[in-house]
From TrEMBL:
Localization per Swiss-Prot or TrEMBL: Cytoplasm
Similarity comment: Belongs to the universal stress protein A family.
Main location: cytoplasm
Name listed for the protein in its UniProt record: Universal stress protein
Superkingdom to which the source organism belongs: Bacteria
UniProt keyword terms in alphabetical order: Cytoplasm
Keyword Cytoplasm attached: yes
InterPro entries: Rossmann-like_a/b/a_fold, Universal_stress_UspA, UspA
Amino acid sequence: MINIILPVDFGEKTDRLVEAAVQFAKQVNGKLNLIHVAPTDIGFAIGDMGYQYFPEVEENEIRQELILLNKINQNILAQDIDCEHLLKQGNAVDVILDYAQTKNADFIVMGSHGRSGIYDVFVGSLTKGLTKKSTIPVLVIPIHD
């Protein structure tokens, strides 16, 4: 069976990416391994008192993201595609590549929003970072309008 890593960010185009990944998995008899990488600074805020950490904010956010990840997982399983999922905090590129290695992945499936240029300079591109560092094929699916 072909192991496919599918990072998701719960953005407005996630449904399109998931559907494309499901179709790919059906074509290659693949298993989807969902991963969501949460930032490590979720519970931090800056105010008059400087940096403050609110663990309850982080816990609530992680709990909500896990609920969303479970829903996507159930949707994929309902389409007769083997699927499992993981939510982890850290640097997205490193976490995804580590997960791909752990799962002995054959592909990483990513979405392309069609942004380029100055956007990448200031925000960076997860897809770009993965394609530069990955030793396994990264399938980039256009999900922009």
